Amino acid sequence: MHNRNNITDKIFWVGTNDRRTHLFENYWPLPKGVAYNSYVIVDEKTAIVDTVEKGTMDEYLDNIAEVLEGRKADYLIINHMEPDHSGSIRSLVERYPEMKIVGNKKTFPMLERFYGIKENLLEVQEGDQIDLGEHKLNFYMVPMLHWPETMVTFETTQGILFSGDAFGAFGTLDGGIFDDELDLDYLDEEISRYYSNIVGKYGRPTQNALKKLSGLEIEMICATHGPIWRSHVADIIAKYDKWSQYKTDEGCVIVYSSMYGNTEKMADNIARQLVKKGIKKVRIHDSSKTHPSYIINDIFKYRGVILGSCAYNGDVFPTMETLINELEHMAIKDHVLGVFGSKSWGGGGLKRLNKFAEEIKWETIEATPEALCAPNNEDFDLCEALAEGMASRLKELYK
Ligand code: FEO
Fold it and tell me: Cα of 244 to ligand 1 centre, how many Å?
């Protein structure tokens, strides 16, 4: 009975904390780790909601056994098939072979292809209900939040939304599991970075899901990562609403790629001019040092984006190429873009950034300085013109 984590008298958190994995999805940094949340409802019938990544499975199976106290598991609800949540299904099935696996018509082909499981399935559709006794579970499809099979489960008696990845966060649950037990200031960037990195591409599906769920009386949100929301339910829903509409604040993110400091000098000059013109929130990143995860997160916060690159083998610098590929892939909307660069002979960096500007279809600033070898006064004049164009447009947008 030492490790029971009650959410209510009959619902338990049985998830795990992962402080060992460096990269989520083998790409996104996890400096503060990540939690895989799973839940057990103990009623006349018992239900497990989602599972955990297989690396923490032993601890997870012990957690479940502790709350079930010898009872069998009647249902396993699969809200989402990504292996950080489905990774323990096969072991659960071995331990609880009579358990019905609940999913929708898009869940089960994935279940079979990932894990070879095709028996004991219970398919649910939008609005279907499973009655556990005191607790009733309703199902809502939220496709592309952020996979096609994604659904959420709403417990109607107590108003608990098992939301899958929606409203999730990076960061482990250190000592607490509820939002009001944890230091949300410490987790703030991990909450927004989870949205921008993992869900951010799917703004419209997120909006669709928010509209669909808006009629529910939600008292608590149990996501598959991060805090359980009970004191800040409206706040996290409002954040998702803002982020998924690509609403941003006044500010500018400058990202540069520089081998010997000349492009960096231009970035610093532009930043100085922006601040002198009243733009206080300026964030500068070196694309060779800062992972795109953090840069993308800042771009989700601020309307202005200025990208600068030296030429490299007739093209843009490799780490800038990685970043702009990611931005194109995520199809982030509604920004104001400025570009600049440097070259020692034939160029290529600014040319690629201009191509990116055409493809991403953001509003652009006219001045596009490109220094030859090292920036001179004329180049700095153009840097100032770029900063002036960006600052005046931002001031206009946020007046
Ligand atoms: Fe947390 Fe999409 O898996």
Answer: 17
Sign of the torsion formed by the C-alpha atoms of 107, 110, 114 and 117 = positive
Cα separation, 255 vs 340, whole angstroms: 10
Atom in ligand 1 nearest the alpha carbon of residue 198: 2
* CB of 291 closer than 6 angstroms to any ligand 1 atom: no
pTM above 0.85, yes or no: yes
| Whole-angstrom distance, CA of residue 309 vs CA of residue 109 | 45
Number of the ligand 1 atom closest to the C-alpha atom of 36: 1
Backbone conformation region of residue 111, classed left if phi is above 0, alpha if psi is from -120 to 50, else beta: alpha
Residue 134 in tokens = 């005191």
Which residue in 40, 122, 51, 117 sits closest to 82, CA to CA? 51
Q: Is 119 helix (H, G, I), strand (E, B) or coil?
A: coil
Tell me, rounded to whole angstroms, the distance of Cα 18 from its chain centroid.
17
Q: Whose CA is nearest to atom 1 of ligand 1?
A: 165
N-term to C-term CA, the chain: 57
Would you say the CB of residue 321 lies under 6 angstroms from ligand 1? no
Given a cut of 60, whether residue 1 has pLDDT beyond it is no
Residue 392 φ then ψ, to 5°: -70, -35
pLDDT in tens, 65-108: 999 999 999 999 999 999 999 999 999 999 999 999 999 999 99
Q: How far is CA 307 from CA 198, 295, 304, in A?
A: 23, 11, 10
Ligand 1 centroid–CA 157 distance in Å is: 27
> With b meaning 16 or more CB within 10 Å and e meaning fewer, what string describes 161-199?
bbbbbbbbbbbbbbeebbbeebebeebebbbbbbbbbbb
395 CA → ligand 1 middle, Å: 38
